[in-house]
Amino acid sequence: MVVPVEPSAERPGTSDVPSGAGRKPVDAELHRRLVYGEEAALAEVYAAYGVLVHRVARRVTRNHTAAEDVAQEVFAHLWSRPYAFDARRGSLRGWLSMLAHRRAVDWVRGEERHRKAAHADEASLRSVQASGPSPDEAILEQERSLLLHSALARLPLPQQQVVHPAYFSGRTYRQAAVELGIPEGTAKTRLRTALRTLAETLAEPPLRGEHP
Fold this sequence. Notes:
The chain is an all-alpha fold. It has helices at 24-35, 39-61, 64-80, 92-130, 135-153, 157-168, 173-180, 184-201. The chain is 70% helix and 0% strand.
């Protein structure tokens, strides 16, 4: 079980663990107890080095929440993999500091990757939004526009009077009926008939060089 990481002022007598040769037997004993899954040993390690680990992580990440997460990961790693620490090679204090620094650096690199990915996505989106139609698409759109205006001009005048407000001004057939002073049913019928005619006229023409 991992002791919750709550950075606070160092307790007298807990953070100042004796250094040098005097600490190694203590570290070895703590390590032995951690290997046997003794939670009290983990609590003692956190009491002695919790503030130190958080301070190292905070110095690298410059982020309080990230430092708490890193510290939690460090002690969780010690608890789940106590064999990763070897008291014969160095102090527990140094090992935890090194592990905190590595995890903090990983966090910083991860944040940088996220920022670069976000900037790349934004740049791609702006590029797509700024890019206009291709030359072929522009020509096709122009041809369709000419075809549309030609088809509208061939509609009977009563149908044109209903289609123009609906097509170019976004009005409903009810609004067109009020403006034209005609019944709604009449406006609806004219609009429906006109749209059917336009749909047939604007149907995709055969490609150049092909026979219908």
